[in-house]
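Need tokens for this chain, all 333 residues.
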Amino acid sequence: MSPRKTKQSTNIDLSKYIKEIDGCDNETVKKLCTITDKNQIAKYLYYLDQHKMLANPPQFDLGTSIGAVLRKPDIERFCEQRMPPLIEPLDKNYLRESASYELRLGSRYRLGDSNQAEWLSDSKKDLIIPQHSIAIVSTYEWLNIPGCLIARWNLRVTMVYRGLVWVGSLQVDPGYQGFLFCPIYNLSDQDQLLIYKDPLFIIDFVLTTPAKDKYGLWELRKGKYSTFDFDRLDEYKIDSAPASSFKELRTNMENLKKDTEETIIELERKTERFQDIILVVIGVIIAALAIISTFGITNTEWKQSWVEFVLIVSALVLSLVAVIIASRKRRNN
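Here are the structure tokens for all 333 residues:
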């Protein structure tokens, strides 16, 4: 069967969806329009309305059987010759020569156990995942999976070598439309930098049994705009157990350090007081010995030795100085 080509960019009337965007109160869609071209978002809304078309069989001969993985030319045809396209927007620079496509990091993300999603853009490209922490990220590409395909995706191997972990590969079911979302865990002992629109994931597509009926996909979702956001993940609070443990350990270590410093300071004060007491005692002992050596124990006659006199005076002065120093330190403490 000969290919039926479609010119998606020129044949689609997006005016209805532009008005819908201008009038909608969904904050995620509004924010996306400031990051991505509004016409691109309008396309996504158009694809959602054309959901039943995903059940239609492809209009070209794949030359493959059920269970076969789509090759690069087949992926291109599903993107360029079919409505809705398999991947939007398609960048051929990320088509692998074999049978897969590299999905890029999208604009929406959530870091750690925060319930507040953040945004990446061309002016804010960097996403840093701290060591032993987790982030939920989205893809830059939008997927329209037809009824005859499933998709399997995972992190690129180069990302795994950097210490990023995501247990996959998860299956994307026939009929799925929207961005893809997943948690990524930084297993390494270093912060990891991800950049907006850089390739992060790898995805391939496998032929399955053809669709026999239309899909009632919306019965499983909250609403039309839920596919743009983390609505399906909001009931879960995901955090990294090691990161939480390290935070608790860090807090305990800081408290222990504080207690230890206070104990050391107190010991230093007690040591200084003990040294002052020893100094006073030594001064008194020296003075007593000088007096005894001068007058004797029973004989009180003055021997008029200037050496002994100087020794007595020095001992008394030393004792007085020690007492004064000890008194001042006690007042300061």
